[in-house]
């Protein structure tokens, strides 16, 4: 985009529509109102055309991800963690679905306009977070609860919190009413 606005365009395999989340440029809080034609569309193409006003050159960067692994606004930046490559570890679960291992991930660092001084400890913690080795060590299933013995009667968006690696990191999506947009990530032991 010509401005510094940041949008996250999401199409899930479990839905037939596309959502557009706006990143508040000051606080980093995700914004979503579930309004058709504003942040809810029939396709990625419609959503992208709305965000860019139909301009192909109006977008500064575009990063394609296979899954959202987490999001957090920390100090002067917001961080979006996405999986860019997935490995089908268990490709055909009984009754359908697939367990994926994160093959490659990417941290997307979004500058915020609220210049706040950060202590050395906070900066160190943020750096350590973004240096975590995710690739090949974390897995998820978009359609089944794999935090409990299989088959689980619990819905996929109510996992056993004891096994969820990214619970706090998925809260921003829960807060805007999109609890399944950030996958439930489990860590390989």
From TrEMBL:
The SAC domain, residue ranges: 67-180
GO MF term list: phosphatase activity
Pfam families registered for this protein in UniProt: Syja_N
Keywords, sorted A to Z: Membrane, Transmembrane, Transmembrane helix
InterPro entries recorded: SAC_dom
Keyword Aminoacyl-tRNA synthetase appears in the UniProt entry: no
Segments passing through the bilayer: 63-83
Name used for this protein in its record: Putative phosphoinositide phosphatase SAC9-like
